[in-house]
Amino acid sequence: MGTRREPGIPVPLESVRQRFERWRQARTVRTRIPEPLWATAVEMAKEYGVNLTAKTLRVDYYRLKKRVEEKAASSTDASCEGGTATFLELTAPVASRSGECILELEDGYGAKMRVYLKGVDAPDLAALSRSFWGVRP
Q1: Share above pLDDT 90 across residues of the chain, in percent, rounded to a whole number
Q2: CA–CA dist 90, 93 (Å, integer)
Q3: Exposed, middle or buried, 33 (CB in 10 Å: 0-12/13-18/19+)?
Q4: Cα–Cα distance list, 23 to 29, 33, 52, 68, 82 (Å)
Q5: Where do runs of H (alpha helix) occur along 10-121?
Q6: What is the pLDDT of residue 20?
Q7: Mean of pLDDT over the chain
Q8: What are the residues whose beta carbons fall under 8 Å from the beta carbon of 64, sequence distance 6 or more?
Q9: b/e per residue 46-71 (b: at least 16 CB within 10 A)
């Protein structure tokens, strides 16, 4: 094995590639990749992408992708376990009934509609505009 660096591969990823190659040369046939090497591969995939990492390290793309997703999910779960709220209720602000609004619609044929709203709750404007343009939901 030479120490020649492959062109286009970032230096940290090249270093991990060399670790994988040393392990491959020293292992017995059909031995699983050790967890510390997988963990390093996952970190490289988060930094340089799953495709480049899998190709450079000569590991299965889908297994690496699955491990990256599992790591992301477990780190998200761990951040929620620290006593932080997982549900936050947001209440809508109370609308004042003194507001005014003019809504003007015009279609491509020149038909126009003007709606003047004052002191009332606004209707479903999306449904109103769809009915004006004759579009079915």
Answers
A1: 40
A2: 9
A3: middle
A4: 11, 8, 20, 21, 37
A5: 11-26, 35-48, 50-57, 61-80
A6: 95
A7: 80
A8: 41, 42, 45, 50, 53, 54, 57
A9: eebebebbbebbebeeeebbebbeeb
Measured between alpha carbons, how far is 63 from 100 in angstroms, rounded to an integer?
A: 58
The H or E element spanning position 128 is: helix 125-133
- The amino acid occupying position 105 is L
Highest averaged pLDDT of the listed ranges 46-50, 75-79, 119-123: 46-50
Is 74 a residue whose pLDDT tops 80?
yes
DSSP 8-state class, residue 124 = -
Paired tokens of 48: 């340089």
DSSP code of residue 33: P
Using CA atoms, how far apart are residues 79 and 9, in angstroms rounded to an integer? 32
Q: For residue 72, is pLDDT > 70?
A: yes
pTM beyond 0.85: the answer is no
